[in-house]
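--- STAGE predict ---
source: upstream dedup step, 1 unique chain passed
mode: sequence only
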Amino acid sequence: MSNVIGRLAPSPTGSQHIGNARTYLIAWLSARKQQGQVILRIEDIDSPRVKAEATEQIQEELRWLGLQWDTGPIIQTTRLTRYEQALEELKKKELVYPCTCTRKDIEQAASAPHLEHELPPYPGTCSQRSVADAISITDRPYAWRFRSTSPVPGYVDMVCGSVQPRMEFGGDFVVWKNNNTPAYQLAVVVDDADMGVTEVIRGDDLIPSTPRQVMLYQALGYALPRFGHVPLVVGIDGRRLAKRHGDARLATLRERGVGVEKFLGFLAWSCGWVTEVRAVTLVELMEWFRLEAIPREPFVLTESLLQQLMDA
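--- STAGE serialize ---
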C-alpha cells in the first residue's frame, strides 16, 4: 500500500445520481491506481435536507458500484467536539471574530455582483471586533468569521493545473454558524487533516472553497492535500443535475435493471477512457484510468442519453 489516502464524502440527502457516481468513481480510481486507501465520510452537518435513511442508501449504492472503502463511514455529526477544538485554536490566534451580519446585510453592503453559488465578498463590517468582544454580544446571534489572508492563495490543481482564484472568492468567511454548528469549510479541513487525506478529488463547483480551505490548513498547521476538481454532469441547460433534467438517480437505474458494468462503461465513456459505451469492469478501469483524459467541459446528460442508459 502507498501513502495515498483519498476520500468519498457524500451528503445524506437521498439517492445519489449519475453525476455523484462519476465523481466518486474518479476519486476512487485515483486512489486505487496509486495503491492507496479510501475513506468514506458522511457529510451531514451542513444541509437542511439530510434524510435519516440516506446514509445506508449511500453505502448500498457505493457497494453496487463496487467502490469499497477501507475506513468508515465516518459521520460528521459525531465529531462536533473536534470541530469545537479547532475553533478554539483559531480563537487563540485571533484568526476569527464574531459577526452579527445577516445574509441581507452582506448583500446590501457589497458592491460585487452575485455569483451563481456565492455571496458577494464579505465587506468587513464586523472585522474590527476581537474574540473577546463576543462576551458583550447578548442581544442577537453571531457567527465566527475567519480573517482571510490577502492575496487569495492559489494552488496547483490535479485536473485544472495552476489556479489563481478570482477576488470574488476572497473576503472573510464563516467557519462557525450562528446556530452554533460548524460550517462546511472548517469541518472538511479538520476531517481531512485528522484522517490523513492526501488527495481531494471532487466536483469543480467546489473550486471557490479551495482557497478558503488552504487558508484554514495553513492557520491550523495542517499538511495540505492535493486538490483535483472535475467537471460536473449537467443538464442541457448547463445547470447541475436536478429533477427537471429527468430521473438520474442511481436508485432508479437499479430499479430499471441497468447492469453495473454497463453503467461503469457509460461513466468511462463520459471520462474519455473508452470510445463507446460498453460493459467494463473496475479492474479494466484501473488500467485505463487517466485524470488527464477527462474532458475539461461539463458532461451534458441529455434526455436521449439518459433514456439509452435506462433501456440498456
